[in-house]
Write a structure and sequence with these properties.
CATH class: Mainly Alpha
Radius of gyration: 24 Å
Largest sheet: none
Distance between the termini: 74 Å
Structural class: mainly alpha
Number of helices: 7
Order of helices and strands: HHHHHHH
Shape: globular
CATH topology: Arp2/3 complex 21 kDa subunit ARPC3
Number of strands: 0
CATH architecture: Orthogonal Bundle
């Protein structure tokens, strides 16, 4: 037997090791929604922006839907996975752009976590989206001021960013509310399956 055949036979005798991940249905939901959010981020990158940092924030629509359906923890996973995967995809991981996105996402998640405790009668997806948009801009502005451009002149940009946050936050909130209303109607239209009674013969 040649040396090559001996090596192949020795390799065949070695036990094959495999790594099995114990996933749940929630993990699958989070992965799917994070993929949708990442797709919206890619789509958003193709939209021209009149000013750096002013973006529609389409991925926040997914975060709002996940927040309403699965809770804050799942929304946090979706948002952070979207930021991480997006930075790896665009090649700016650990670059200033990554920390700007991360700071905005973290501030938005904190505000959304607090906004969940507001009265549902007066606050909903639209108000949550506006709060998150303002928090996102505030987090990014803090990073810019304390790290990238420590100059008081950036205060002149606050009205522009605030107007963009109000506009896009309202639009994204309305879209998210529309999706959630459509899902509610679809669930209400599902037929209710009644258990069939079985009649056995008397013994």
């Amino acid at each position: 037997m040649s040396g090559k055949e001996q090596a192949e036979s020795a390799g065949a005798d070695l036990p094959c090791s495999s790594l099995l991940l114990d996933t749940t249905a929630e993990d699958h939901h989070i992965a799917r929604m994070a993929a949708v959010a990442l797709g919206l981020t890619i789509l958003e990158s193709a939209i021209p922006s009149p000013l750096p940092g002013v973006k529609p924030g389409l991925a926040n629509i997914v975060t709002l839907i996940v927040l309403a359906r699965y809770g804050w923890r799942a929304a946090a996973w979706v948002s952070l996975l979207r930021v991480l995967a997006g930075s790896l995809l665009f090649g700016n991981f650990l670059a200033p752009g990554f920390f700007l996105s991360l700071s905005g996402a973290l501030c938005s998640l904190v505000v959304l976590g607090l906004a969940r405790h507001l009265p549902v009668r007066w606050f909903g997806p639209v108000s949550h989206s506006i709060h998150a948009a303002f928090a996102h801009i505030a987090g990014q502005m803090l990073v810019v001021y304390f790290w990238l451009i420590p100059h008081a002149g950036i205060a002149y940009l606050i009205p522009i960013f605030a107007a963009a946050a109000l506009l896009f936050g309202t639009v994204n909130g309305l879209i998210a509310a529309r999706f959630m209303d459509s899902e509610t109607v679809a669930e209400n239209r599902k037929p209710i399956r009644r258990p069939q009674k079985s009649y056995g013969s008397p013994g």
